[in-house]
Amino acid sequence: MRILLAEDETDLGLAVKQVLVSEKYVVDWVTDGTQAWDYLESQWTDYTVAIFDWLLPGLSGLELCQRLRLHQNPLPVLMLTALGQAENRVKGLDAGADDYLVKPFVMEELLARLRALQRRSPQLQPPSLTIGTFSLDYGNNALCIGRSEPYQTIPLTVKEFQILAYLMQNRDRIIPGSKIRHQLWDLNEEPISNVVAAQMRLLRRKLASYGCDCPIETIPGQGYRFNTSLIEY
Hints:
By secondary structure, the protein is an alpha/beta fold. 39% of the residues lie in helices and 20% in strands. The chain has helices spanning 10-22, 33-42, 61-70, 86-95, 107-120, 158-169, 177-184, 195-209; strands at residues 2-6, 26-30, 49-53, 77-81, 99-102, 130-131, 134-137, 142-145, 152-155, 216-219, 223-226. Strands 2-1-3-4-5 form a 5-stranded parallel sheet, with helices on both faces. A hairpin with a 3-residue loop joins strand 10 (216-219) and strand 11 (223-226). The longest helix is centred in the C-terminal third of the chain and has 15 residues, at 195-209. The model has no long low-confidence stretch (mean pLDDT 87).
């Protein structure tokens, strides 16, 4: 999932982003509400969850929620705030927030709230990705290969997992490298232009080290494709 995080407390924003990235989320972090709205307008369909602090400079988290709902955008929103009174929680929920987390909080609770949003929103649930003998294990960040247990298990880095999941979700489609970079690297990173090609080389090398042929094809001048015809069934 791609998350838009709007939090102006630098230490908290950095900590939340680090935790989310470690859980395989792609995170765009901004520090004011106006920038958050700019991101939403330019990446309207790319985000699957937003986390807004209530008291943001520019547009508040409350105003961001109201704008989203006025535009009939169903993007799930988790509101962060130090305003823990019941009337404030009601106000936030009435503005369109889907959940509410009062500061200070522990990161485990933040992750639990995101999991709850996923359960309530089936479109956000991590897919069970299995194609032939290839299966992604979301719990262990690994690729499992085989028709039955015991499977061959290949541990993956977060970025390797994200790339493989994205291409498997778009099986047999040619995906340009620029689209992969845009989808899987946050907008503030500005990765080098050949970062996708470099990651593909690393992924292929890792699969080869486990004696596994990589079903990801490079289509010159077009992009990359997860070719299901190269998978055993």
